[in-house]
Amino acid sequence: MTFRTENLLGVSPTTPEQTRGFVFNHSMLRIKDPQVSLDFYTRIMGMLVLRKLDFPEMKFSLYFLHRPSGDSAPSDEGERTAWTFSQRGILELTHNWGTESDPDFKYHDGNAQPQGFGHICFSVPDLAAAVSWFDENLVTYVKRPDQGKMKDVAFIKDPDGYWIEIVQPDLLKNLGR
């Protein structure tokens, strides 16, 4: 199957040859407390930590997470780092040391004014089962699938207040029609 882009104003009809091999690797979220965020993303969202990198001179750590894909990561540290940066769909959590000890510290979630960043998204095989799992784990909702004008789409919050869209792909066939 050959994929062709949708024809919209501003969209290049061809992919430049110079971009062959480009991979969308990761998106980054800043987190207040790595223990809390890692629990959420590994236990609730089922992600694995591919690599942790510490930068003591700049006082921050990076955590690279991914959904299990069946590929096994190399055990050699350098090879594992290179492998991590070759994957698709990685979530990078950045922890600036000391934020976890400040009870008043909070990152802007991008949805409060002024708006900017919006959300990340997970697709799930069964939206009702995912909602049940989130309820069981007391996850905070922005919007449940039966609320609002967009049905069959949920939005939850991670421990830092970032929004996560939850969709079941086969329920979205008429979205935007």
Overall description:
With 177 residues, the protein is an alpha/beta fold. The protein contains three helices and eight strands. The strands form two sheets. It has a four-stranded mixed β-sheet, sandwiched between helices. Strands 5-8-7-6 form a four-stranded mixed β-sheet, covered by helices on one side. It is globular, with a radius of gyration of 18 Å. The protein starts with 25 loop residues before the first strand and ends in a 10-residue tail after the last strand. The model has no long low-confidence stretch (mean pLDDT 92).
Mean pLDDT: 92
As residue ranges, the low-confidence spans are none
The Rg value, from CA coordinates, equals: 18 Å
Largest sheet: 4 strands, mixed
Which shape, going by the Cα principal axes? globular
Report the sheet-strand fraction.
25-35%
By DSSP (H or I, 4+ residues per run), the number of helices equals 3
Structural class: alpha/beta
Helix content: 10-25%
Cross-sheet strand order for the largest sheet: 1-4-3-2
Helix/strand order: EHEEHEEHEEE
